């Protein structure tokens, strides 16, 4: 997927990739990896999320859960410049974060719940 998207819903996501506006096709590690300010309005992963990559400059609503945290030492996860609303299902707990502009906002939730994210990463690259 490239460019802008209104809404994407998947049952589960294992070993998959959804990118919008990523020039080199690799999981973004800097904000310059976003070749456009593409926005995914709504992305929902209803079933298990494991070993997959999701990236777009902006998300209005991103819902993921339940999450498998380990992938045999292979980093995976989400990269974005900003996420207006992030909904996660972490160990059967529903978590909602708003106006996510730093990785530490997401990691703070994991820490407060005593969850080690293992191979899962949230790269908020604003």
- Strand fraction equals over 45%
- Weakly predicted, low-confidence segments: none
Average pLDDT level: 92
Number of domains: 1
Our measurement of the CA-to-CA distance between the termini, rounded to an integer number of angstroms, reads 22 Å
Major sheet attributes: 5 strands, mixed
Total helical elements = 1
Strand order of the largest sheet: 1-4-7-9-10
Shape: globular
The helicity comes to under 10%
Gyration radius, to the nearest Å? Answer: 13 Å
* Secondary-structure element order, N to C: EEEEEEEEEEHE
What do you see in this structure?
With 126 residues, the protein is mainly beta. The protein has one domain. The protein is built from one helix and eleven strands. It has one helix at 103-112, and strands at 5-10, 13-14, 17-20, 39-45, 49-50, 53-56, 58-64, 76-80, 82-90, 93-100, 120-124. It has a five-stranded mixed sheet with strand order 1-4-7-9-10, with helices on one face. It has a four-stranded parallel sheet with strand order 3-6-8-11. The longest helix is centred in the last third of the chain and has 10 residues, at 103-112. It is globular and about 35 Å long.
């Amino acid at each position: 997927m490239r460019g802008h998207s209104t809404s994407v819903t998947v049952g589960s996501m294992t070993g998959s990739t959804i990118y919008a506006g990523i020039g080199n096709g690799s999981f973004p590690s800097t904000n310059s990896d976003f070749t456009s300010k593409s926005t995914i309005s709504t992305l929902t992963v209803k079933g298990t999320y494991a070993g997959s990559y999701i990236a777009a400059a902006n998300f209005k609503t991103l819902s993921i859960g339940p999450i498998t945290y380990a992938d045999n030492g292979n980093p995976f996860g989400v990269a974005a410049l900003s996420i207006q609303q992030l909904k996660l299902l972490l160990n059967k707990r529903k978590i909602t974060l708003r106006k996510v502009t730093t990785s530490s906002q997401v990691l703070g939730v994991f820490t407060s719940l005593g969850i080690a994210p293992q191979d899962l990463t949230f790269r908020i690259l604003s």
